[in-house]
Amino acid sequence: MYYRIIRNDILKSKGITLTTMIFVAAAAMLVSLSAILVVNLSGAIDTLMKQAGTPHFMQMHSGELDKPRFTAFAEQNSKVDEFQVLDFLNVEGTRIVIDGQSLADSVQDNGFSTQSGKFDYLLDLDGNVITAADGEVYVPVTYMKDGSAKVGSTLAVAGKTLTVAGFLRDSQMNSLLASSKRFLVSKHDYAEIKDSGSTEYLIEFRLKDLSTLGAFESDYTAAGLEANGPTLTYPLFKMLNAISDGLMIAVILLASVLVVIIAFMCIRFTLLATIESDYREIGVMKAIGLRVSDLKKIYLAKYAGVAALGSILGFALSFVFRGLLLENIRLYMGESENSALALGCGVIGVLLVFLAVTAYVNRVLTRFRKIPPAEAIRFGTSQEQPAGSKRFNLSGNRLLNTNVFLGIKDVLSRKSLYGTMLAVLVISAFIMIVPQNLYNTIASKSFITYMGIGDSDLRLDIQQTGNIAGKAADIAQAMEQDAAISRYAVLTTQALKVKLEDGSEERLKVELGDHSIFPVAYSQGNRPAAEHEIALSAVNADELGKKTGDSLTLMIDGEARELTVSGIYSDVTNGGKTAKAVFTTRSAEVMWSVIYAELADPSLTGSKVTEYADRFNYAKVSGIDEYVTQTFGSTISSVGKASRVAITVMLFINVLITLLFMRMLVAKDRHSIAVMKSLGFTNSDLTVQYFSRSVFVLLIGMVLGTLLANTLGQVLAGVLISSFGASSFKFVINPLSAYVLCPLMMAGSVLIATIIGTAGTGRIQISGNIKE
Amino acid sequence: MEMKKMITGINITKHYGSGDDKRNVLGGVSIEIKEGEFVSVMGPSGSGKSTLMFALSGMERIDGGRVTFDGRDLGTLAENELADLRRTGMGFVFQQPTLMKNLNILDNIILPSMRDNRRNAAGITEKARQLMQKVGIAELAQRDITQASGGQLQRAGICRALMSSPGIIFADEPTGALNQAAAQGIMNLLSEINAEGTAVMLVTHDATIAARTERIMFMCDGRIVSEMRLPKYSGKDIEGRVEKITAKMREIGI
């Protein structure tokens, strides 16, 4: 009888057994891959940063630099181990031409530098410190990956032609998220091209003890040293290096969790269907004295076999894909030293999947205990009692077709059975709708106001140059006389000191100007209107512990002035740490200036961009759409891609789970089906009944899923978005796709699966199933 | 007056399984049931009684031979037409009460009728209540099936079978799961229904049950091996009728 059961089980569910194995294999592969990737990634980052001697603290600065003052500071500060200032020659992308192709389209700030003397080395692909000979240039590895350059290519800059001798790994600027990229040339060549761009300084420190970094940062700020560029630290470099591959690993892990859940559902529904069909045999085996553990062993053996095969297959597959996924890490960071550890972790991951599957099977099989032998032998099906829905009576039904009524009645009286199906549909609707709404939201034009960017047509950025205030005034004057420009606003950012409650001081980037012309969205309160008001970005408000109405002491022109927080807004620019106010200062210490303009005829944006870019070559001029695309284009397209992938995967899961669920239901209901048939209900009546069950559960699932997506989903998406600075936002919903297309696709997939899954009702013979 | 033929089965064959497992269940059975007859089929387990009932009611397709119901050849009817026929022209009572667990007793009784005519729910419910009154379960209308005894459920099953005013009721061991008092109650009910003009064909291996009918067919190994007729049961001398049946059984060796 043991073998008959196993044989029947496998024969009856060949497809499902295979599907289960494939899912287990996929889960094992993904878990193993993520374990291997995590170990390799952290190992490779450590190796790279050790070999390169990544700075612990780096301040970027452009303009005048008082080097002796820095040297004195570094010498006097006991925490500093080594100190250096590197020159970085920032060259406009249009002026760098590789094999005839300029880097004009590059969103990176490309520039040249020479090999550093003490630390922060630029390394070749074998991890060695590069020495560039005259006439040679080493190109960031990212340009090798995108195919812009190869060894032997020619690179022309400022009339000088260099040969690409190789590629370099830069422990601080490797990542695409680091917006600058360093090209390495010899000292001699550097001197020759020095005038082709603007020089920025990388002020770098290595500390004796990395744990003193926080204290060192305070020392640096307190010393009032030059700092008009971004500040970066060792942990940040590490995070930048880890983030893109880390995100990939997180996605793989999430996917593996999803796959394991699907595998569990496959197993659950197949096992329950098997138990239902073999109900009488199981009763007989219990009646003749076999232990529950003996019975469990049969099924456990089968699924342990399936899980073991799947796990081995998955582990093998992880070897195939490992190379592919490690390629990026190897290219950007080099080899990891702990490959044995990686392998070990991979094996542990696979073992975990195997154990999880067998433990789950074991849990489902505890159902055996609940099968009373007498009942099983007598009835051959479980005699569970329906619950609830007493007032929903056929005799009182005038509205619904009898088959539809029976379908709904069945769902209402077996709520816990349909609960699993409902949960799948709710989750599925949720996962289909949230990424889609998120995509629509971030792709909509109004979203930029959530990002701290005014809704205008043009944006001009003036930064990392001298006399910013004067230059901004020039542009403003030009705009004043330009009839094509209907309104404009000049916003100037200054770094002002804010006095904290504990007496310490912190620098706050305050954007000064009229904020009423191109307002951003305020999550609390309003824009600053009066001189004594200030609005804080969400991240700053959080860090300073301020809310609307609180007061804040700012040092303005050497005097402490009490300001009231008028509002809080989202900002994704400048690391999300900004503030807005309308007062003026006497100081000319401007960090940067942004000019927003609106055109009388927005279709002229393109030509105006060109016109202003030509006229004011120190300003970066962009149409606002272009600015958004450049800044968030890749994020928007990734979210779009993710939402399409989510929809496809969820539709597939809907079909699979509904199919398995319906097959289980038919196995469970075969006695009722036979009774129905004996009473003269046709096969199409039964199809309508099962269809009604599906539609009923589907409707509830879609409504709940959509409600959840618009509430919890919005909150979750808000958390995600606030992680890069924006807060308080509402979904921009495309009703056609969210309320029509998505539900239609879900309904289509579930209903097709219902039809296929319940096709078996037609084959159920009355004679074989009605006799109990 | 000569009664009209209702069901005719000619040379019916039916087997289950194939190859070495092939088992002939019906080996060429011919049978006729007339309107208003009270017929029983007796025989040991595995003799093919139930299969014959399934074949005559169109619940089971036959392998050979022909079955006609009111002149219609069941072999030529599609599944849906057979279902329509079962719903409107026949009633069924099984050994276990085949009631839907998630419906109350009244809803179970009206279920097949509501499929075609839910607009007349009031009329259907009224008829169901009258039938329930007649079989003595009127007070159970709103109860779940778990709140009724086996005998009461079997009565509910009979009410359901009577809802379409069928020409015949097929009853497969209708008293098999009941105690003697309940079994007698069900048989009284079936006799009453028959007296009102509905044909009844019941399958049983119990001579005291068969003794309530007027025509008894004996089956063995997939064939009708003998048949006997008794006068209409008047409520008296059941023992004498049982004696005649058991004598016949001894005679044919089943």
Task: Outline the secondary-structure elements.
The complex is a heterodimer of chains A (772) and B (254).
Chain A: H1 2-12, H2 14-52, E1 57-62, H3 67-76, E2 80-90, E3 96-98, E4 101-102, E5 109-113, E6 122-123, E7 136-140, H4 141-145, E8 154-157, E9 160-170, E10 180-185, H5 187-193, E11 198-207, H6 213-222, E12 231-233, H7 234-277, H8 279-287, H9 292-333, H10 339-365, H11 373-379, H12 402-413, H13 415-443, E13 458-463, H14 468-481, E14 485-499, E15 505-512, E16 522-525, E17 533-537, H15 538-544, E18 551-556, E19 559-569, E20 579-581, E21 590-599, H16 605-615, E22 620-623, H17 624-668, H18 670-678, H19 683-722, H20 735-757, H21 766-770
Parallel strand pairs in A: 5-10, 7-9, 15-20, 17-19
Antiparallel strand pairs in A: 1-11, 1-12, 2-5, 2-11, 3-4, 3-8, 6-9, 7-10, 8-9, 13-21, 13-22, 14-15, 14-18, 14-21, 16-19, 17-20, 18-19
Helix pairs in contact in A: 1-9, 2-7, 2-9, 2-10, 7-9, 7-10, 7-17, 8-11, 9-10, 12-19, 13-17, 13-19, 13-20, 17-20, 19-20
Chain B: E1 5-16, E2 23-34, E3 38-42, H1 49-56, E4 64-69, E5 72-73, H2 79-89, E6 90-93, H3 105-117, H4 121-135, H5 150-162, E7 168-172, H6 180-195, E8 199-204, H7 207-210, E9 215-220, E10 223-229, H8 238-252
Parallel strand pairs in B: 3-8, 3-9, 6-7, 7-8
Antiparallel strand pairs in B: 1-2, 1-4, 4-5, 9-10
Helix pairs in contact in B: 3-4, 3-5, 4-5, 5-6
Task: Please name the defining characteristics of this protein.
heterodimer; A: 772 residues; alpha+beta; six-stranded mixed beta barrel; 53% helix; 18% strand; B: 254 residues; alpha/beta; Rossmann fold; six-stranded mixed beta sheet; globular
